[in-house]
Design a protein that fits this description.
This protein is an alpha/beta fold. It folds into 2 domains: 92 residues, Outer Surface Protein A, domain 3 (Alpha-Beta Complex), CATH 3.90.930; 238 residues, Rossmann fold (3-Layer(aba) Sandwich), CATH 3.40.50.720. Helices cover 38% and strands 17% of the residues. It has 14 helices and 13 strands. It is elongated and about 80 Å long.
Length: 378
């Protein structure tokens, strides 16, 4: 840490001196984050007061020496470093270097406060917000999940989104697809979604693509140039996710998918080169259940399609979880929970579990093993 650094003690942290008077308790309002620090001579409390972002370490040392003459610069740097390792500090210089406008910093003030929980002297909350702004996301399907994710991306500060759909808004959508209203009935979803989001966030650049996915090549065409793909559609069943999976693996683009199955929501992420893929998952599930392949064959041949059975409240739970994973994927502020895993959320008990695990690639996967690659356009 250079002497020009301007440490700022995070505004989200409450500090109090506990009963014996020799210790500080920091971060008590944040669940599972409280830390107690010895401070018999009051030097830590004074240091915290001085780290308001207006002083560099030289200036802080000058102030500290007035009451603690024995303190050396090396001592100060060590104290600051230890507080940084505990996750208590940011470098105020980041605000002067950011490309975010004053209006953006005001709009995303709460985002920045949240991201500060994960920031350090070398990785600022502003940097995390900038990563979101620079992302290019493709959303396949702007029904309930896709339109909800689009709205969440606008709230997060993502400014470049491609939406892909061929459907129109129906009255029956309005019980759960909250991005649309009665005036949108009959309109193409991509048009209604783009218009409504532009009114909410005029800086977001939306590319609307009227397209029905028919192959991996179709998927590859619309995915090209994306930082991340969100699969929020499910038809044609099984085939669509396989096409998207193949396209994303070929382009080395991470993707996340999900949906609602009456009483639960499910979501999963595929990170090319780091996790297994959907084909790996199919192989794993078929090996675990000998009847699964025949069931899928019979199901697809039957033409049965589950009618929409979701209420908005349940979808909001799923949308929130998926949007949080997207923010993690784009910034790395916290570990992914769904990488190579299908997470199932029970809407009755509000509990979740790992339903399927494909974190490791399957040795017979035709996509993860390039020697056996083949197409799934059929």
């Amino acid at each position: 840490m250079g002497n020009a650094a301007k440490p700022i003690f995070k505004k989200i942290l409450f500090v109090r001196r506990i009963e014996d008077g020799n210790r500080l308790r920091i971060g008590e309002l944040i669940p599972k984050r409280a830390v107690e620090i010895e401070d018999e001579d009051g030097s830590i409390a004074k240091l915290i007061r001085l780290m308001d972002g207006t002083r560099d370490t030289d200036q802080i040392w000058d102030e500290m020496k007035r009451d603690h003459s024995e303190l050396t610069m090396d001592d100060l740097i060590q104290m600051v470093s230890e507080l940084d390792e505990l996750g208590f500090l940011e470098d105020a210089r980041a605000e002067g270097l950011t490309r975010l406008s004053l209006e953006e910093r005001d709009r995303y003030k709460a985002n920045l406060n949240y991201f500060s929980l994960y920031s350090t002297m070398t990785k600022s909350s502003i940097h995390l917000q900038e990563q979101l702004k620079q992302a290019h996301i493709t959303i396949i399907g702007v029904g309930t999940l896709g339109s909800g994710i689009l709205f969440n991306l606008a709230c997060l500060g993502v400014e470049s989104v491609r939406i892909v759909d061929f459907d129109r808004v129906e009255r029956s959508n309005l019980n759960r697809q909250i991005l649309y209203d009665e005036q949108d009935i009959g309109r193409r979803k991509i048009d209604a979604a783009a218009d409504n989001i532009r009114r909410f966030h005029s800086a977001m650049k939306i590319e609307a693509v009227d397209l029905e996915m028919t192959s991996a090549e179709t998927a590859k065409h619309v995915i090209a140039g994306s930082s991340l793909v969100v699969l929020a559609a499910d038809q044609p069943f099984v085939q669509l996710e396989r096409w998207v999976n193949q396209a994303c693996l070929e382009l080395r683009v991470p993707w996340i998918g999900g949906g609602v199955n009456l009483v639960e929501g499910q979501f999963y992420s595929v990170i090319p080169g780091q996790t297994g893929c959907i084909e790996c998952n199919h192989l794993i599930q078929n090996e675990a259940d000998a009847s699964r392949a025949s069931f899928l064959t019979e199901y697809l041949a039957s033409g049965f399609r589950m009618p929409s059975t979701a209420i908005a409240a349940h979808y909001m739970l799923l949308i929130g979880a998926v949007a949080s994973e997207i923010a993690r994927m784009l910034t790395g502020f916290a570990p992914l929970q769904s990488a190579g895993k299908v997470i199932a959320m029970d809407f009755h008990t509000y509990t979740s579990e790992v339903r399927m695990d494909f974190t490791a690639t399957h040795p017979r996967c035709p996509l993860c093993n390039p020697m056996k690659s083949r197409s799934f356009d059929g």
